[in-house]
Protein 1
Amino acid sequence: MEFGIKQILYLLLTLFIVLNYGLILQGIMPKIAARVGRRYGIRWYQPYLDLIKNHAKRSKITHGVMYYLGPVFRLTGGIGLLFFLPVIYGSPMFDNLSFAGDLTLVLFFQFFGVLGMALGAGEGGHPYSAIGVSRGLSQVTALELPLTLGVISIAMQYHTLNISDIVAAQQGGILNWTIFTNPFAGAALMLTFLGSMGRAPFDVVLAPQEIPIGPPTEYHSGFLGVLQLNRAIFPVAKLILFMNLLYGGATSWPELFIKTFFIYLWSIFVGVAFPRFRVDQSVRWFLGVPLLFGIIAILLI
Amino acid sequence: MSKSDLEKRTVMSPDGEPIEINPLQDYFCDARPKVHEPVLPILVLGFGTGCGAIEMRPLMTPRFDAYRFGIQWRPTPRQSSVFIISGYLSVKTLKRVIRSYEQMQNPKFVIALGSCTINGGMYWDSYNTIKRLDHYLPVDVYIAGCMPRPEAILAGFEKLKELIRQGKGEGANLYAKNFDWYKANQKKIIKDWDIPDYNW
């Protein structure tokens, strides 16, 4: 792969498009959830205003170096995940830093942000941050098991750890998509997807009513702004990963927008219909049906 | 934890070396508040306390739906811009309110609900509530009523936005400028003062 200034510019362009798409999604999805509750909901450009407002705050306080690094690690997790994904299949511009073993790296980046947050939020000294992080980590650990089983199943199915090759194998019709050729792995992945999006019923980590909003309790002003940036980028990167693994990838931006929108809608769909799990319940749930699907997927391949 | 645990004292470290500790001091914030040049703040986040909060709950329901005005409740003072004092304030609560207010980041605004915050309201002769909130915290908007209806609270938020656009919502800077006066008032009424003088 040639790596030059052109590649960096394309990476930045990808980041820019994904950031804006993520912010707009962040505005539209709560609006859809609000319409289910017969409310008007926020304006679609509210996330932009929040971002500007947080960066425009005049004062901020610090709790030391690790406190700074928390949001930086989190954002690195999001951007790293995005940069190592082939965003548009077959496009030399938006293939990004995709390489032969990128699937393993991408799985690692899913976890990286939470670990960084654990270090940074602990430094804030707020007891609720520590509780929130431990809850978040236990939930992510539980969902990582069926997720990894599903991903291994897909890797075994296509005999590759390269996401580009996995996408290439799914081309040529809807019935070639992994969700149809390997439905059990697809089911395990889509169920863990609900948990990794951090929406109801798995949003106890960030639930205002439980413990004041968990890990980011102590983060404010620009720090919160950086976390918000990540909250726009990270879900879209994850959506692109799931689209690549299960739904045949995308050959153009409009196709990507349509596919990722409906994958995101799946988590909203479940979120408005089901109440919130406690962490012990969600851990038990992930180790139940999704894990079973994951094991079946491994056995059947 | 007893009150003596919070006092400044010298303790012996495991190595046998005496060290001075001051549990109430956060070594990252040991300066007086600064007056900040105004920049344009855009959106309002809410943070409620007190008993009159019963009128604030309906704001999030489909009937009033405050979200569409960009108003969202945050449970931590760090991320909030607006402090809603919802109704009467006992001296004991005032202490917590001051701690929370000082932890909020500039620019920050205070909305006072109900007549209790204006002149004591129906608790005007009570021995343990404050009569005028303005003496202890800089109030930007008063919403009169006992209690004000949710519509009135929404109107109050709109009024606050108007004040911010006109550049008049400078409560945080007022607090910084008249810091000694506010602190003297607070210490006059809070008898068991055991919080640091500034704690952000």
Protein 2
Amino acid sequence: MDWSQVPTLTWESAKLGILPALFGLIISVPLGIVCVRFRWLYGPVLSVTSVLYALPSLALFIVLIPYTGLTDTTVIIPLTLFSLCVLVPNVVDGLRSVPEPVRQAATAMGFGTMRRLARVELPISVPIVIAGLRVAVVSSISLATLGQLIGVSSLGYLLIDGYQRAFLTEILVGGGLIIALALVCDLILVLVRRLLTPWRPRRRRRELPEVVADPVAALAGGTQ
Amino acid sequence: MITFEGVTKRYPGGTLAVDDLNLEVPDGQTMVLVGPSGCGKTTTLRMINRLIDPSSGRILLDGQDIQQSDPPTLRRGIGYVIQQAGLFPHRTIEDNIGTVPLLIGWKKDKARDRARELMRLVGLDDSLARRYPHQLSGGQQQRVGVARALAADPPVLLMDEPFSAVDPIVRATLQDELLRLQAELHKTVVLVTHDVEEAIKVGDQVAIFRPGGRIAQVDSPERLLTAPADSYVESFLGFDRGIRRLSFLAASGLSLDDTAVISASLPAWEAAEQAQRNGEPWLLVTDADQKPRGWVTGDELRSLPREATAGDAQLSPYGHTFGVGTDSLRAALDATLLSPAGRAVGVDDQGRVVGVTSYERLGAAVEAAGPAADPDAAAGAEPAEPATEASPTGTA
């Protein structure tokens, strides 16, 4: 097998995993805020994101090909839509996790609505939003491999090529790399969360925020 | 000065939370709003910083109708303390305290300096400045809440059941701290509580609400205890009104007996004779610094060998003392009731014995203060500063 393509394929897979989650986040934050502000909207929005998630990805790729061609965009759009199904509820739950006394204190201190959102409510939502982002990134990395079927390259190439050539090593290498990539992305998000939320109580109480010395243990302990 | 003029708040659905409220909170005073739950006291408080807007009527802050001010701007000039402190979990203690200064555009360094100044004021150690709220105890968090409310030095401070989420011992400490702060800062404080003892302890004025959002009586704590307006107020104040009123009479009004006080170095036989001469069953033995050591009976002294001094006798503990210059008649009475000798020890601010009480002397002091039933006579009496209404201190 041709090892020289592995770095490129890994990079493509990472891009197809991370970009949809980021775009999904950009859509979910304002959508979530609106859903918290207007409670009646949340039900319908949830229904729509669930229906979107139920759509087969391959079908969506095919529908999009006439408009966006055989490009990354054709894969990124459906994966972005899928990510909304976890991200919108997490943004909403995150905002709702802000304790009422905290919200009330912020208002009474003289925060206007926007400032309160930016300086109090969103920062406090970060842990829950990042938990959603981890699911979105990992699932996008795995779903993106299907893009290979319409010729959008990723680590999925190794799986399909290996299957067509009945070459087990290539399939195992492809699968292993996909899992490794997902774990690395997940770990990075755990680290980002730790950096952004030094204020969170630790399960094991320590005086000061500690640097993660053992990434594997951190990953194992960081599931939520 | 905060003025409520015919303020009514009716919630959608028709619940009448506050009904035609007229109330004045003078500058530099603590006004406590107290009443059962659902009486509109919290609604009243929240209308002052426009967390709730009234359905009708006007609220004036120093003569300005608050409906005409922009809510966030209005709120930055009014400190607010709530029950669970409501600290921002994602900000350090110093940044929590600096919230309003930063909002009104102070530089970060200046806000942090101010935060540390306030931490000292409310009795928090500097080392906590970089901690996060979850690392503090409930009492410490509440102190941070008070510091945060005071950060931009607002003239008005609103406190919504500020001490009800902490245990009774911490609560008593925080109440004392509030009295100390208020004696120093002279803010216009409006405090909501359902605890009538707290109201009487910390209020310059107390407004008792009845269900349905109407005020039953607004008066000084002493006058409430002396002359409740009606049976509702009377039952709300609870039992022991007469005893609690003694909190407002200074122990300095007591004439104390010093003939029952003897030095530990006095020969026992001489002390025994002195006891007999005065007809005193108990004598208080003091050490060389005039600090109390304990009670001794004439019989005990007589049973000692000839060369013994009073200090050699078996002494009974002297129990609680009370500060003659600082405590109230209530503290003196309480200490007397608890003493094995039926007499309590009055001490000066150095802890030196001034004299001892007796029930006769207590009775005379209460009588001199005027009868409880006559509000005018009671109002004429010199009330003890509420800040000095501490429980008896200085246990043996």
Protein 3
Amino acid sequence: MASVTLRRLSKVFDGGIQALHHLSLDVRDGELLVLLGPSGSGKTTALRCIAGLEEPTSGDVLIGDRLVTHTPPAERDVAMVFQNHALYPHLSVRENIAFPLEMRRVGDAQIARRVVEAATRLGLEDVLDRRPAQLSEGQRQRTALGRAIVRGAQAFLLDEPLSRLDAKLRIELRAELLALHRTLGATMIYVTHDQIEAMTMGQRIAVLSEGRLRQVGTPAEVYEHPADVHVARFVGNPGMNVLQGRGRGMGEEGRVIEAGSLVIPVELSTYEGELQLGIRPEHVGLCAVNRGVGNADVLVVEPLGSETLVHLNAGGQALVARLPGFVDVRVGTRVGVKVDRRRLYLFDAAGAPLA
Amino acid sequence: MTWRGWAVATTAAAVVAAALTLSVARWAESRYERAFAFRIATTTADYLAAVTPSPLTRRGSPPPPVTGYYLPQLLTQARALQTLPGLTSDVEVYHGTAPLVDATAPPLFPDDLERLASEGRAWRDGVALVPLKDRHNQDVVGAVAVRPRPTPRGPLPGGMGFAFPAALLAVGGAAAIAFRQRPLRRGGYAAAALLLAIAAYADVRGAARRSADRWLHDTRLLIQEAATRLPAPRSRVAIPDLVSLIRDAELVPGEPAESAPRRLRIDGKRRAVVAVLIGPGRWVELRTVPAEAYTAVWLVVLLGCAFLGPLGILALRWAERTPRRQRREAVIAWGFLSPAGLHLALFSLGPLVFALYLSLHRWGREPVEPIRPFVGLANFAAALRDPLTWTSLRNTAVYSLYVPVSIAVALAIALALRGYRRGWGARVLRAAFLLPYVSSVVAVALVWQRIYQAGSLGLGRVDWLSNPNTALLALMLLALWAHVGGQIVVFLAGLERIPEAYLDAARIDGANAWRRFWRITFPLLRPVTLFVLVTGMISAFQVFTYVYVLTRGGGGPLPQHTTDVAVSRIYQTAWGSQDFGGASALSLLFFLLMVAFTWAQLRLLGKQVEHA
């Protein structure tokens, strides 16, 4: 096992699209790091640069102490699981898992032993002689995992491995992957756009947006202390409400932020002018009209059982409230809005946090 | 539809099919009657030309037309026809436009003669008109008109044919089955249709037989009459004097026999014959091809017509049972399919069936050999015995070896081009490779002919195409060059369909380029490779143009059959030896060989690869 280090990695594609901007990242030995970002944020490009499938325009990739920026993929000793699993369709499960060993000229007896070992670990013993087309989606993904772990690589790269599975299977395999990570003690870089996956799996999360690294930290850090508006918006389900606001003074009561139809008193003395106000949906509540910090119109109500999401229009700004249990509100009615004033996040107009 | 409506529709279908069958049969019968009328009219014209004395033979008469006939004599001979006992038709002879036999009959129009001169014959109001030519068989000086008298159409009471009662029976049967809702429906309808077709065919065959018999009968009378009337100085009439009467039959010395026409098999060929007495104790035999021997095609046509009934009933049943929407869709689908289907039937299936028919007959070119007897498998046996057949098959097999080579070359180039899909250089290259494939085959062949000529392009003093050792190789090189472009395009399309992810995965798994190709790309390309191989093999087997243009079909003197491939052998057999039956047999043998070979290729290489 080895650490993976990216140093000021940039990638510009032929069409002039810059997928990565000076990405620097340190993945520790044995760590499971999640690369999180919306689609097009450059996370897959970063992964492919680590694997050697893309050559970076500038910057370096290190695996352990080795500089591998221009080393072909075969010599980097990494394993990768692809989003569409990329199982060789003309080979059986056994042959698929054996493929990397065969390519490294491992002896037949050892190949057979290690394939069975990997297959047993993933519960594939019964389907070893089937072709990928004859497998369920879950079995295919397990086979792809098998092909990755059979070799004992320095680092495992997983490119949205669970995105094609249905919700139930995804939860199941998530747990299996975590168990696998624990037993192998392997360095894993896990790319996903699903922030729940990121929160549940990552020891650390690296949030990418528009090719730039926004924040690296534990799930709690990223959630509680988002480094900027992008991270705040992206992490959490649904993400943080970000309202365009304006701070100003208002007599003896101190200062307030006006955002749409809301007027929220804050303990902020130094700032005046345009700013962005972040509120997590769970910190928004409803009350009678004119009793809260402002009024809003109910656009959509999504009852989820354990909680209800209420989408609001607060003077032209979108706001989501997450309320426990079922809530009796009608679409189209006007309600009052409460916010937990201790849990507000303030960002400047450019998106950087205000102290 | 109620069952009564259903029964009415069924009966209507049966009536339509029966009416169609009957009218086709009637039409065929009248065709045979016309054929007889034209034939006997021609014979009569020839008879008149033979028996009317030359005007030069009579002295002291006014100067007659030089090549025409002396009218009083023509009048005498024509009138004599009227008194000839037993003729089955009414005959009229025109001199110019004037009728000679029945003076009160309406004359011809002047342009009738012109039409006869240009078209050779005419049919008007139940009368067959043929020209009466002068002695040198050049100018039309008159006409002979024959109106065949009605004859019984069948042996049934009242001279009725079989078809009409059979049609009544068939329609009645169909109606009875439909209205009574009898269980054995389809079988019953089919049996009724079969009965109808066979009865109608019996009538048509009878009409054909009658047409031959009547001609034999009437011609016998004319020959006997001619034997007594041939002008002086003839005293004893001999066969050579009479053959001018019977252009499309044979006249041979014969034995005494009754005057009715008979059917005989002479040297394995069927003939209709009649004995003719041309002098005391002197018999000849008049032989002709029996028209009924070539009526098989009518059986096919009539079966087709008659089975329209059961087919229509099947269609009705289908329409009744199928939900409306499905019916609509099926009708629309068949509507769209029908042009292609019709085209396929007319231009693919039809010729195939005809080739099968040809291959079972001796079939030469028309004027040389009008008789095309059934010979069974003799054509096939002859083809298999001919060493040139085997030579051509071996040459074809050797020639087709260029296909695997061109596939390898095409795949290599496609792999090389794949990396540079965007640059204009790659586009130019691709177009350059494709150019020979889309160029005119003959033009390409002619260019290569120049290249292969001795001394060109520094290829040495060998003339590749006329040297038996290199001629086939030269053709293979040309084929390789011409076909590689098309194969490259197919391979490029195939490569594009292989997801990049497989190759990425293999890269990470440690496979180098060589192994990526053999373990991933090539297996995944298998369907494409198979397609290129099978189509390439088929087109290699069918090679003809290059061989024909470059070495004149391989049968020429120079390459000594070394470039004689299967199709050129077929061509030589058909157009060189004028043996269409043999050529068809060869084609079918070759077709079977190709089917077997292609099937084997598909079986051996065609395991399906599913993409997951």
Protein 4
Amino acid sequence: MTRAAADPVLQVEHLTMRFGGLVAVNDLSFTAGVGDITALIGPNGAGKTTVFNCITGFYKPTEGRIGLRHGNAGMWQELNGLTDSSRRSAHRADGALFLLERMPDYLVTQKARVARTFQNIRLFTGMTVLENLLVAQHNPLMIASGFTFLGVLGLPSYSRAEADAIAKARYWLDKMRLTERADDPAGDLPYGAQRRLEIARAMCTDPILLCLDEPAAGLNPRESAELNQLLLSIRDEFGTSVLLIEHDMSVVMEISDHVVVLDYGVKISDGSPDQIRNDQRVIAAYLGVEDEEVERVEAEVGL
Amino acid sequence: MAVDLSAAARRARVDPAQALKDAALAALLAFGLFLPLIGLRTVQDIRNELTLETRWPLLFILVAIVGVGRLVYSLAIYPWLQARLARPAAPSATTTAVSHAFARWFTPFALGFVVVYPILAIALAGQQGALKWIDNFGIQVLIYVMLGWGLNIVVGLAGLLDLGYVAFYAVGAYAYALLAKTFGLSFWILLPLAGTLAAFWGILLGFPVLRLRGDYLAIVTLAFGEIIRLILINWVPVTNGYAGISGIPRPTFFGIPFNASDEGFAATFGLEFTPLYRTIFLYYVILGLAMVTAYVTVRLRRLPVGRAWEALREDEIACRSLGINTTNTKLTAFAMGAMFGGFAGSFFAARQGFISPESFTFMESAIILAIVVLGGMGSQIGVAIAALVMIGGTEIMRDLDFLKRVFGSDFDPTQYRMLIFGFAMVLIMIWKPRGLIGTREPSAFLKQRKAVSGALVREGHG
């Protein structure tokens, strides 16, 4: 039994997303284990980003349940009770449970602590690299500034909180090798650095689950290898669970603990990287089926 | 590249024959255009009949101006511009030092200047002349500086295009006028109250437009401004309609009125009575209000709420992905901007003593927005300079009597202000498409504060 099944942080059940007549995701269920790197793969248009948008609250799923827990694994016992109630979350001394499909997008990050990046990088290009990381710490700083009222008066408690925020930003800048560019506008950074900054910005929200939408897209092989190291260190040092959409198989196969394969909005396979590599359905979805098989099917239907 | 440049330089040295042909063509074009527009004129005579009048000399002069102008341009100005472009623009050490010194000393110098401005005006123009310079010029410009700074929060920082900003100015003015007349409350109590009421209306406008972006947001805010104005016109029992509200109590010097009576300001302090004292007092009140606006905005930009406004302008979806409640962020921007508009409005009512819906037309919104855009969205110094140029320019135009000597005695320069504004705007947008101050000051820095180029800063989506 894999860790994903034994100790999930995220549990997606019967997720369906329809846009008018188009079924983008159909009855999808999977779990992501605590402290795992879970990869969501599939051909273009398989519905991966739609799943991300449902998890992070940007879409309201047509059907299905998305549960996320903080703290103790025992929190999952609350799941059915929470579903029957009209509440969004259940809190106990040893943890909390959230139903993400009931939460608006900003609360998914603020309360459930799920952070995400975007397929087409979305940085605040006209703000400096440092400012990008400070915006990510909006909520704790907002509280420290007494919801602006105390901050306008210039109380020292806010200055301290801001210094802490800058120190945290500094940590991520050092880790991402962006310290030299801290005072440059984010839009001036080269592509690979922008990708790293977007991950750093997401990490500045202190996520339990980090959702990365194609983090290796457009990176060269060396940058791709660095990304692997970075994701492993995020997993190992911070215990942050990672859910990633990826096309780059070198990234997926090297670092994932668990892989979920989608095709046409349906899950076609689920398991360890080795299992996925040898799964006939996955090979068929990616590479197409062999010629003999096509001939056989054609013969069956009388072509 | 070098080859290209020399080729351009060779092309720049046009042969006179070509230039002459070009100028003739331009003159011909001008003749074709101006013949019906200027050469012929319809006049109604005494018997109420339309007669056609020709103005050949004027037509000839204008066509000649176009032709000669074109000739001069292609023979002299164009080659000069090309030569200037071809020269590599390397900023020398001295010019950088000068621009650094300018950036460093401009704000303190400008602050010092506005503080001593009334004294300077009295010293230079005498008591009678100073009244006009302080009231019509100083106070008027400062009101628009304050309105520009208020709108700058909504448009420049949060990137929400608001075409109905004057509505909040009106709410502030009417709130002060009605409450002061009805309940006899003092200016200093009503000032925060008027600001709060305007902020409330800002939130009220904010709610329906939360989902709107760009053109749609602009249309709805435009409509909101008109709604407020139409209510002011039609709710006659309260607002007195077109006739407006007169006899609004004037602000007092902490209880001491500015009048010629024995309890008046002049008598209390043993001075000779002159209306100048009230004007100077009002000047410092609006200066103080504008400074509060500037200070609060500067502070807010360094607080999470200000950064969230700017982040909202840059990318709303990324904001939401970082756990920022964009609804609250937009509403606080609307409320803050509206509050400063309300302050300015209540000051306006107290200064004028009379308000009517005519002071709150769409034209006002357009002027305030033009100030923000010309100044450079988000830049406070830029907005202040733009307000000085636009509003101060209008006031100065009233005094350009020498123009009457040139164009005849029935020439009124203020009639041409919109034309001149139009020209000024087009020119500024060509030379400085991001406004007078096109760079953005970052709100925090690690080692060195570097201005962000305007090319990277987004204008917001709505």
